[in-house]
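Before relying on records like the one below, remember that each one covers exactly one chain. Contacts with other chains, cofactors or solvent are not represented anywhere in the record.
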Amino acid sequence: MDTVNILKALADPTRLKILDCIKNGEKCICEIIPYTNKSQPNVSQHLKILNQAGLIEQKKDGTRIMVKVSRKDIYNIIDSINKLQQH
C-alpha cells in the first residue's frame, strides 16, 4: 500500500462515511448508498478509490456486490486523526 494514496483516500468525508458504514462487517453496496446519502455512481467512484488504495475488498454475491474493510487497522489511523482535531 502506498502511504500517499491511503491518505488521499482518507481525505474525503464520503469515503470516511463508507469506511464507518462497513466498520462492523461486510455490507452490500445497496446498504452503503443510503448510509452516505449519495447517488449510486458517486458511491461507486468513492469505492473505486478506496479499493485502489487497498482499504476495501469487493466481491459479488449473486446480484449483490459486497464490500468489506481489507485492513481493520485503518481505523486506528482514523481515530488518531480525529484525536488531533480535539487539541
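The radius of gyration is 13 Å.
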